[in-house]
Amino acid sequence: MLTEYITIAVYFAFLVVIGIWVSKMNTSVGDYVYGGGKGTWWIVGASIFMGGISAFTFTGNASAAYSAGPTFLVIYAANTLGFAICMVLGPWFRQTRAQTWADVLRDRYGVQIEQFTAIIGILLSPLSAGIQLYALAVFASSILDLPVIPLIILLGGIAITYSTTGGRWAVMATDFVQGLLMMGMTVLVFWLSLKAVGGWDAFFGYFTDPRFKEDFKFVKEPGEFWQDRYSLKWIFIIFFVQISGYINLGTAGRFLSVKDGKSARKASLLAAVLMFLGSVVWFVPPMVARFLYAGEIDALDVKEPATASYSFIARELLPNGVMGLMLAAMFAATMSSLDTGLNGTVGVVVKNVVPWFRRLLKMEPLSEKRGLRLCQLVTLVLGAELIGVACYFSVQEKLELFDAMLMIGAVIGVPLGLPVLLGLWIKRIYWVSYFVILGCALIPSIYFTWDQTVNGNVWTIQDRMIWLYAFGVVGLFLSFPLWKWASRRTKARIDEFFTRMHTPVDFEKEIGQGSDFFQLKMIGVSALCMSGFIFLLLMIPNDGSARLQIAGLGAFMGIVGGGMLWASRRQKARDLKKGLIPAIAGVEGQSEAE
Fold first, then answer.
1. Are 291 and 67 within 8 A, CB to CB?
2. Residue 308's domain spans which residues?
3. Is residue 63 part of a domain?
4. Nearest to 505 by CA among 98, 39, 106, 91
5. Which of 495, 512, 529 is the last residue of a domain?
6. What is the 3-state secondary structure (H, E, C) of 70-124?
7. pLDDT digits (tens, 9 = 90+) for 193-241
8. How far apart are CA 4 and CA 464, in angstroms?
9. How far apart are CA 515 and CA 421, in angstroms?
10. Confidence of residue 593 (pLDDT cuts 50, 70, 90)
11. Helix axis angle, 431-450 relative to 414-425, nearest 10°?
């Protein structure tokens, strides 16, 4: 266990160092909030991918794979398709020229909707992030045998530290490095699991085994699982709900950091490929755990043994000393979601809410220097808030606030998303339409909550979604006649928004200098350092096969890092030839550039 502690400590220190290193790239609020629109496709694509997963992938979703086989993979099929669709939509989102998702809603619907959604987002974001942090700390506590509250403070503090120092650049850089480690580790666990079960033929053979046949058939009968999960209706509704999360205006925030539309398309493709690979790599191990270790896992002294299926099989199969890296990879999955959400909320506060209040009070706009300081201060405040929320959850037996948060999400989450979804595809709706659609969608949502609270009737998620979408469509048709009362100014702004969204970005004219060279060098050096640390694990006693596994993981990180450094030299040569050495390279050392 000492090796695991050392590994995790080194890993966390590594993240903080990256945050400090990339802080030199923040010369303006725009750099801090959305990377100044200079992100390369590969760093943004990896960050988009990592921002969409968490430790729940290896606990709750692994539990679904363990208990019900491949049915829940419909969620990840929808995620993959969603990223593929964003190969078309991603360029649109980048071409809004926005800096935050709230900017997009302001340009589409107006200031009223910008401030309304911004305030709700600011209120709910620390609560949802606090839940993620709490869940991660509980998971880590069960593995490391450490108290939950100190882990909450430690894990939250690390994410806050590198997010505060480096802003969006730190988020993207750490997401890329953490993604490398996570994919490397999970591919290793996948390979070991497949080897342990006897290969693909043996793996699929278990699907017809009488012990697993009913649970592992793709479409379950209604009533077979709780709330008719994994039934045909559940499959269709969940697939549609998941896809809708990618084809709405709120998704724009994922692509605002990338350089231009072409890069957004490549970033979407990378995220789609990684999500497809992850869908296979992440969920074979918990199924294998069901086939080979069901007795041991079901006997575990934890509330839901199935949630420990992934960590159990990883511990059984990984070489000595490598479980620390596996834990670091699981931490990476959640911390990437935490820092992305935290940075996005900071951007909304500093770029949308604060400027609106200053204009209201007839105050001068903040200077870039003061704006950067405000970004860091807001990051610290929001970070402290989410740590406080997570600590509160840890000392509550009934978790009333947790239940309240889930209730709020169920009641207003989907209704809030409907006008954001429709606003991308239907031009003839404006801010009044937004509230009409929202109001109609809230009717069944509130009723379901009342019926469950007062009468004890439980509505399945698929039935909830059908009625929510149906009422949302009614709200849409009710709002159409209102278009004739929209002002000319409103109609002109909406026309301008859609025109701009379909106008390609000219990076050199609109942004100017890029920082491709520094991004390549930063990731290359970071990956090589991680590779070197992994090779040190060869000093731990293991058999020949285990040593080969460790060496393979280190080589994977090293090859990626070396490739990045090689590409950075080529990029530097091209920049020198064009006379476009990035300003950030000059910070590192002008003599080297010369």
1. no
2. 2-408+419-430+486-512
3. yes
4. 91
5. 512
6. CHHHHHHHHHHHHHHHHHHHHHHHHCCCCCCHHHHHHHHHCHHHHHHHHHHHHHH
7. 999 999 999 999 999 999 999 889 998 888 888 878 889 999 998 899 8
8. 44
9. 33
10. very low
11. 150
Phi, psi of 581 (to 5 degrees): -60, 125
CA nearest neighbour of 472 among 403, 533, 417, 402: 417
pLDDT digits (tens, 9 = 90+) for 94-132: 999 999 999 999 999 999 999 999 998 888 887 778 877
| Tokens found for residue 144 | 């490391």
Look at phi and psi of residue 294 and say left if phi exceeds 0, alpha if psi is from -120 to 50, else beta. alpha
Q: Give the count of beta carbons closer than 10 Å to the beta carbon of residue 116.
A: 19
| Amino acid residing at 412 | I
Both structure tokens of 470:
């149906």
Whether residue 296 is found in the same domain as residue 396: yes
Determine contact, residues 479/433, Cβ cutoff 8 Å. Answer: yes
Dihedral angle of Cα 536, 537, 542, 548, to the nearest 10 degrees:
-80
| Residue 267 tokens, joined | 């970033």
Percent helix, strand and coil across the chain, each to the nearest 5:
80, 0, 15
The angle subtended at Cα 176 by Cα 93 and Cα 136, nearest 5°, is 100
Diameter of the chain by CA atoms?
76
In a domain, 164, yes or no: yes
494 and 523 part of one domain: no
Give the phi and the psi of residue 396 in degrees, each rounded to 5: -95, 130
Question: H or E segment at 250?
Answer: none
Q: If phi over 0 gives left and psi between -120 and 50 gives alpha, with beta otherwise, what is residue 271?
A: alpha
**3-state secondary structure (DSSP) of residue 39:** strand
- Give residue for tokens 């071409």: 95
Residue 495 lies in a domain: yes
Q: How far apart are CA 381 and CA 368, in angstroms?
A: 20
Query: Which is nearest to 100 in space by CA: 426, 356, 389?
Result: 356
Q: Are both 425 and 542 inside the same structural domain? A: no
- For the chain, give the mean pLDDT: 86
Cβ-contact 568, 517 below 8 angstroms: yes
In terms of domains, do 239 and 308 share one? yes
Q: How far apart are CA 154 and CA 146, in angstroms?
A: 11
φ, ψ (nearest 5 deg) of residue 436? -65, -50
Which residues are CB-neighbours of 50 under 8 A, at least 6 positions away? 175, 176, 178, 179, 182, 332, 333, 336, 337, 340
Query: Contact, 523 vs 39, CB < 8 A?
Result: no
What span, in angstroms and rounded, lies between the C-alpha atoms of 285 and 66? 9
Number of compact structural domains in the chain:
2
CATH code, domain with 30: 1.20.1730.10
pLDDT digits (tens, 9 = 90+) for 139-179: 777 677 788 899 889 888 888 888 888 888 888 888 898 88
Judge contact between 281 and 187, C-beta under 8 A.
yes
Q: In one letter, which amino acid is 502? A: H
Identify whether residues 508 and 521 lie together within a single domain. Answer: no
Residues 280 and 173 in one domain: yes
Is residue 494 located within the same domain as residue 539? no
Please name which of 554, 553, 560 lies closest in space to residue 525, comparing C-alpha atoms. 560
